[in-house]
Design goal:
With 252 residues, the protein is an all-alpha fold. 74% of the residues lie in helices and 0% in strands. The protein contains ten helices and no strands. Helix 3 packs antiparallel against helix 4, helix 3 runs antiparallel to helix 6 and helix 4 runs parallel beside helix 9. 42% of the residues are buried.
Length: 252
């Protein structure tokens, strides 16, 4: 009985890790969990993305009688306040490092004290760009009633980010990102990827664009930061969702 209670507790705490990283729900901070719990929490990333996608697609379906632009505003607002807002500053800092250079981890910074370069685009600039692209893409997908791509984007982005964490070296002094690798669920990732292959074949171009974007982002972070940073995890999620929706809108 005690063993079963321990399993249930570990199960729930790994879920809370994923919710802490991926959403704005009132759950304990990710720093409240052990490194092993953080690694196990990655199993939930695609599931949470899938649930988010289902909710967003259901909202889009219920709002099909509205003008596409109005429906897009509502869906984007729900999306942003559920998950995106705490990733936008991370995306701004990541883009600054990847494309504008600068010392990502100065020598004078103590280990574990993260001090990235000031973002050239700024959080507001990144937010405006992301919202503009997502808004226009959502409006097109709603107009053509392509709910599947709205459902797919959050799940695919989070699955690809789990793969990124598993197969990318961690940048120096990135303690938090490193802890997610201590008990990384490689078997679960392999199963998720196998299950995703048929979906990727059906989705076609949008999934291909997301995968290429992931490879390019990985290349740039390796060149600029010598590995994966904590900011890049959240930033890449937003980036992949955005390019996936945009590619889906172009092919709708």
């Amino acid at each position: 009985m005690q063993a079963l209670t321990g399993m249930v507790k570990a199960f729930l705490r790994s879920l809370l890790v994923a919710l802490s990283v991926l959403t704005l729900l009132p759950v304990p901070s990710v720093n409240s969990f052990s490194a092993e719990e953080k690694g196990r929490g990655l199993i939930w990333f695609p599931i949470i993305g899938m649930l988010m996608g289902l909710v967003l697609a259901a909202i889009a379906w219920k709002l099909e009688t509205l003008e596409p632009m109005l429906a897009s505003v509502i869906i984007l607002t729900v999306w942003m306040f559920t998950s995106e807002l705490h990733h936008l500053d991370a995306l701004a800092r990541s883009i600054s490092s990847w494309f504008f250079g600068g010392s990502w981890m100065p020598d004078e910074v103590a280990e574990g004290d993260f001090r990235p370069p000031s973002p050239h685009l700024g959080v507001m600039g990144v937010m405006a760009l992301i919202m503009m692209i997502k808004f226009s893409a959502l409006a097109v997908l709603i107009e053509y009633k392509v709910w599947a791509y709205i459902m797919m984007a959050p799940a695919a982005a989070r699955l690809l980010v789990v793969a990124l964490i598993g197969f990318t070296p961690i940048a120096s002094r990135e303690t938090l990102a490193h802890e997610f690798r201590i008990e990384f669920p490689y078997i679960a990732l392999f199963i998720w990827l196998l299950m995703a292959v048929p979906i990727a074949l059906v989705a076609g171009i949008p999934m291909l664009v997301m995968f290429i974007t992931l490879l390019l982002a990985r290349l740039r972070m390796m060149q600029a930061c010598n590995g994966l940073t904590w900011d890049a995890i959240g930033g890449v999620i937003v980036l992949l969702e955005t390019v996936g929706l945009f590619a889906a809108a172009l092919s709708a």
